[in-house]
């Protein structure tokens, strides 16, 4: 597999139905496999979902296909697409998607100084003391 993102703008040249006058554009992300073909949509694999959540029962084609690797793959595809993209709207949308896929750090309050910090997990237990206090212990 030689996967790549195929990013299209709904009001762009690739639109195959009648163009309307609205300027709003819909950016679509398709995952393509260049090993199948260089031509879109022959090489179409699946749609890149906006968000990837392994806990949701209704899994997207993308997740069913790539399983645990879904999240990393999605991020890599977006990052690679970002490097080559020149269209401002598409760049914005790619960045937005990357933000959605990057998990926010969960914050916890340190049980010594009360400061917020991002705790690390150790197996089933979670860090309760911030790194600063930890180093002073
Ligand atoms: Zn602390």
Q: Which short descriptors sum up this protein?
A:
137 residues; alpha+beta; 2 domains; three-stranded antiparallel beta sheet; 7 strands
DSSP E strands, number: 7
Give the distinct bound molecules.
zinc ion
Low-confidence stretches: 14-24
Residues in β-strands, percent: 15-25%
- Indicate the mean pLDDT: 86
Report the total helices. 4
Cα-to-Cα separation, first versus last residue:
51 Å
Please give a structural write-up.
This protein has 137 residues and is an alpha+beta fold. The protein has two domains: 3-101, no CATH class; 105-137, no CATH class. Helix content is 30%, strand content 19%. It contains four helices and seven strands. The chain has a three-stranded antiparallel beta sheet with strand order 1-2-3. The chain has a two-stranded antiparallel ribbon with strand order 4-5. It has a two-stranded antiparallel ribbon with strand order 6-7. A hairpin with a 6-residue loop joins strand 4 (108-109) and strand 5 (116-117). Helix 2 runs antiparallel to helix 3 (88-101). The longest helix has 15 residues, at 70-84. Mean pLDDT is 86; it is low at 14-24.
Outline of the structure:
With 137 residues, this protein is α+β, with helices and mostly antiparallel strands. The chain folds into 2 domains: 3-101, no CATH class; 105-137, no CATH class. It has helices spanning 61-66, 70-84, 88-101, 131-136, and strands at 3-9, 27-33, 44-47, 108-109, 116-117, 121-122, 125-126.
List the helices and strands and how they pair.
Blueprint: E1 3-9, E2 27-33, E3 44-47, H1 61-66, H2 70-84, H3 88-101, E4 108-109, E5 116-117, E6 121-122, E7 125-126, H4 131-136
Antiparallel strand pairs: 1-2, 2-3, 4-5, 6-7
Helix pairs in contact: 2-3
Bound molecules: zinc ion.
